[in-house]
Specification:
It is built from 12 helices and 17 strands. By secondary structure, it is α+β, with helices and mostly antiparallel strands. It has 2 domains: 99 residues, Glutamine synthetase, N-terminal domain (Ubiquitin-like (UB roll), Roll); 348 residues, Creatine Kinase, Chain A, domain 2 (2-Layer Sandwich). Helix 4 packs across helix 5 and helix 9 runs antiparallel to helix 11. The longest helix has 21 residues. The model has no long low-confidence stretch (mean pLDDT 93).
């Protein structure tokens, strides 16, 4: 793709506007919209000026002028705009140096891919995430000085099994999913099949190949839609578009979608298992004759992921809510080990096929609240560090974790139990991220500061509704 191709596509589609999309530090998509006559070949070098001072975690007021430089490699027509609107993904670029802004997540991912080639280990890394999400009929939440609470509305939730018929909702037809029994049922229990099909068709129109969709384990509308893997940068772009299409399609159906990892107590949370593999000269490097068909290079990559896992999850499981999913003893992938079978291990080796091209590993702790550009880059950098230092991952964990004695379990390290602990780990262990100037000290410091000041401290200071139940009469 080049600028001429984009302009020709825009003309053929009758675009009247261009939406230039970019991602803030936390991971949210933003955009500026311009009349289509403002787009020309020079836009892909000169960019569009914008003020970055009001974005979460980004520039301070004295360095707020930035450029958005579109990348011609990814374009699509917005399926939700009334007027024909061409969409492009952009990098935030420093207007003085003309280099990617140090806090721009997409620029981090580009530098990570460049660093992979620089090392000579490989020339391409592929990522395939499985981003789970919930679709609710409605949600209410409040956090006031004198009260706080939330309420989820889902006609699929098993807690409505005793609801009486009423004029607004109609009769109670009784098909509801019990807690932890929502994995791949058919309709009418799966009430969201048509919605997921609509999402899948929209994804295809926007250039994302869908492989499968189904209901997930939890009650109240937990879903999964799997899409085709791509390069690390391409997959991060696709994941941002995926979340946009899921949210907006649900909104059109009068529903609300969330990628919050643990919105429902006592049921499964939403993870984002990340499949990954490195290739060189169109040859897969993870296939070999070792354990589970792995090469030594793949084992060293695993060694790097396990060595740096506590720091990685500061980016890959980046919310306080993430650690309500990552709880030991509930089949959560918290054990820092690898296995071809054990889904409570942090790394699983899929065994569906013996085709070397399909050999990959699956890092299971991430969840879909993450910024994919930063999370994917952190995983790649950890894996490369493992390869460069030939880090042995040890023996696989193929035993049932629930059958292990306390004596055996003490030798299996675990992920941090909170966002605060993961940030502490990142503070101690981030040199591997700084190689090749992929991450900058400024970004790591800004990330840690933002998370502590804007997320951890406010939650720590606020009384929790459950505390009233436990302590009000103490």
């Amino acid at each position: 793709m080049d600028a001429k191709t984009v302009l020709k596509y825009s003309e053929d589609q009758g675009a009247k506007f261009i939406s230039v999309r970019f991602t803030d530090l936390v991971g949210a998509w933003h955009h500026l919209t311009f009349p289509i006559h403002e787009l020309d070949e020079g836009s892909f070098e000169d960019g569009f000026g914008f003020d970055a001072s009001s974005l979460r975690g980004w520039a301070s007021i004295h360095e707020s002028d930035m450029l958005l430089v579109p990348d011609p490699v990814r374009m699509w027509m917005d399926p939700f705009s009334e007027e024909p609107t061409l969409c492009l993904v952009a990098n935030a670029v420093d207007p003085i140096t003309k280099e990617g802004y140090g806090l721009d997540p997409r620029s981090v991912a580009q530098r990570a891919e460049s660093y992979l080639k620089f090392t000579g280990v490989g020339d391409t890394v592929y990522f395939g995430p499985e981003a789970e999400f919930f679709v609710f009929d409605g949600v209410r939440f409040n956090n006031d000085q004198n009260g706080a609470g939330y309420s989820i509305e889902s006609d699929e939730g098993h807690w409505l099994s005793g609801r009486e018929s009423d004029d607004e909702r109609g009769p109670n037809l009784g098909y509801r999913i019990r807690a932890k029994e929502g994995y791949v049922p058919v309709t009418p229990a799966d009430s969201l099949s048509d919605l997921r099909s609509e999402i899948a068709l929209t994804l295809e129109r926007c250039g994302i190949t869908v492989e499968c969709h189904h209901h997930e384990v939890a009650t109240a509308g937990q879903c999964e839609i799997d899409f085709r893997f791509s390069t690390m940068l391409g997959t991060a772009d696709n994941l941002q578009l995926f979340k946009y299409i899921v949210r907006n399609t649900a909104y059109q159906y009068g529903k609300t979608a969330t990628f919050m990892p643990k919105p429902i107590f006592g049921d499964n949370g939403s993870g984002m298992h990340c499949h990954q593999s490195i290739w060189k000269s169109e040859k897969p490097l993870f296939a070999g004759d070792g354990y589970a068909g792995l090469s030594d290079l793949a084992r060293y990559y695993i060694g790097g992921l396990l060595r740096h896992a506590a720091a990685i999850v500061a980016f890959a499981a980046p919310t306080t809510n993430s650690y309500k999913r990552l709880v030991p003893g509930f089949e959560a992938p918290v054990n820092l080990a690898y296995s071809a079978r054990n889904r409570s291990a942090a790394i699983r080796i899929p065994m569906f096929s013996t085709n070397p091209k399909l050999k990959r590993l699956e890092f299971r702790p991430p969840d879909p609240s993450c910024n994919p550009y930063l999370a994917f880059s952190a995983m790649l950098m950890a894996g490369l560090d493992g390869i460069q230092n030939r880090l042995d991952p040890g023996e696989p964990l193929d035993k049932d974790i629930y059958d292990l004695s306390p004596e055996q379990l003490k030798d299996v390290p675990s992920l941090p139990g909170s966002l605060d602990e993961s940030l502490n780990a990142l503070e101690r262990d981030h040199d591997f991220l700084l190689k090749g100037d992929v991450f900058t000290p400024q970004l790591i410091d800004r990330w840690i500061t933002y998370k502590r000041e804007r997320e951890i401290t406010p939650l720590r200071m606020r009384p929790h509704p459950l505390e009233f139940a436990m302590y009000y009469d103490i």
